[in-house]
């Protein structure tokens, strides 16, 4: 397999520590100085009218409703929190497990902090898990390391592989790609004959959803979460969902409608199967074996 052209991030422990919300090991400041510093910073933030949510300094509920420029590396700013969020609510993990996928080589394109890659490691002998966010890959390496998984910092469009994969999987990622058609064609080229591709992405269930609508949705989720998890986790999820960092991220996301999804994906994968999931649509397609391999 060709090596991936990726930048090395080595063993940058301070980055990894911060990514999972831990103080870097080489921090030398005493606890009292840190406490005092935190109080002083908090007072200044209050004074300038901003709040700190989950370690990233952002105005809470910014007044501007202007969509932000989409930047997938936005995940870099809250990798540890995203991992906790995804761990607390993963409605698609169970669905994926139900597909009972097995084979030799799998690619998780846009693997985030490695949840699905780890699940695949149970039924594939080799898993390449690639994501453009270095902090998320650090979290994955720390929390979901596995001898069958190779985590790489790379855009999915830079993954090149001579052997091809039995499974190409991408969950919740393709809406970040500026050229969706090119990304779909590239992922298709990585599927070996007889192999399959499973692509799941968010769709616009409420066209042009606003911050207010997302906050109202978070309140509804809170009521539901309080019945299925510890109160402190449910409350943490609510604060994450209504925090400025996550709302900014959602405002920069652009989703297809379910119909557009089927059209765009169906153009590249004729004959694919589609299924509508709660906030997403999933597509499954297999490359045939033989001279007419599609
Ligand atoms: C919503 S998260 C989903 C992560 C993971 N698949 C999951 O389900 O938990 C979207 C992910 O796409 C990644 N991403 C965005 N653009 C990418 C690209 N061009 N190549 C690879 N990953 C990308 C982000 O860094 C982020 O980890």
Q: How would you sum up this structure, described in words?
A:
The structure is a single chain. The chain is an alpha/beta fold and 294 residues long. Among the domains are: 15-49; 90-207 and 255-286, 3-Layer(aba) Sandwich (Rossmann fold). Helices cover 40% and strands 19% of the residues. It has eleven helices and nine strands. Strands 5-4-3-6-7-9-8 form a seven-stranded mixed β-sheet, sandwiched between helices. Helix 5 links the parallel strand 3 (103-109) and strand 4. Helix 8 packs antiparallel against helix 9. The chain starts with 12 loop residues before the first helix and ends in an 8-residue tail after the last strand. Residues 1-29 and 42-70 have low confidence and may be disordered.
What is this structure's SSE topology?
Elements: H1 13-19, H2 31-48, E1 51-53, E2 56-58, H3 79-88, H4 91-98, E3 103-109, H5 115-120, E4 124-131, H6 134-143, E5 149-153, E6 165-171, H7 180-189, E7 191-202, H8 211-228, H9 231-242, H10 244-252, H11 258-268, E8 273-276, E9 280-286
Parallel strand pairs: 3-4, 3-6, 4-5, 6-7
Antiparallel strand pairs: 1-2, 7-9, 8-9
Helix pairs in contact: 8-9
Bound molecules: S-adenosylmethionine (SAM).
Residues 72, 75, 86, 110-112, 115-116, 130-133, 136, 155-157, 171-173, 176-177 line the site of S-adenosylmethionine.
């Amino acid at each position: 397999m060709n090596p991936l052209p990726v930048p090395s991030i080595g063993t940058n422990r301070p980055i990894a520590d911060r990514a999972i919300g831990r103080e870097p090991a080489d921090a030398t400041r005493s606890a009292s100085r840190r406490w005092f510093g935190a109080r002083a910073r908090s007072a200044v933030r209050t004074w300038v009218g901003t709040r700190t949510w989950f370690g990233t300094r952002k105005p809470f509920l910014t007044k501007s409703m202007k969509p932000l420029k989409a930047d997938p590396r936005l995940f870099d700013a809250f990798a540890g929190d995203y991992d906790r969020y995804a761990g607390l609510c993963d409605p698609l993990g169970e669905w994926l497990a139900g597909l009972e996928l097995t084979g030799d080589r799998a690619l998780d394109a846009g693997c985030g902090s490695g949840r699905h890659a780890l699940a695949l490691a149970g039924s594939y002998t080799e898993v390449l898990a690639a994501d453009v966010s270095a902090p998320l890959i650090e979290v994955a390496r720390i929390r979901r390391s596995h001898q069958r998984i190779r985590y790489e910092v790379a855009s999915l469009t830079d993954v090149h592989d001579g052997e091809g994969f039995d499974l190409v999987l991408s969950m919740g990622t393709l809406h970040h790609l500026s050229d969706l058609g090119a990304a779909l064609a590239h992922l298709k080229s990585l599927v070996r004959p007889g192999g399959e591709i499973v692509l799941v992405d968010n769709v616009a269930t409420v066209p042009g959803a606003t911050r207010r609508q997302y906050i109202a949705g978070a309140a509804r989720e809170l009521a539901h979460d309080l019945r299925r998890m510890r109160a402190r986790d449910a409350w943490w999820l609510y604060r994450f969902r209504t925090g400025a960092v996550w709302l900014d991220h959602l405002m920069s996301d652009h989703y297809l409608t379910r119909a557009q999804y089927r059209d765009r994906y169906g153009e590249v994968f004729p004959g694919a199967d589609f299924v509508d999931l709660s906030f997403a649509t999933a597509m499954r397609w297999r490359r045939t074996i033989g001279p007419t391999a599609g």
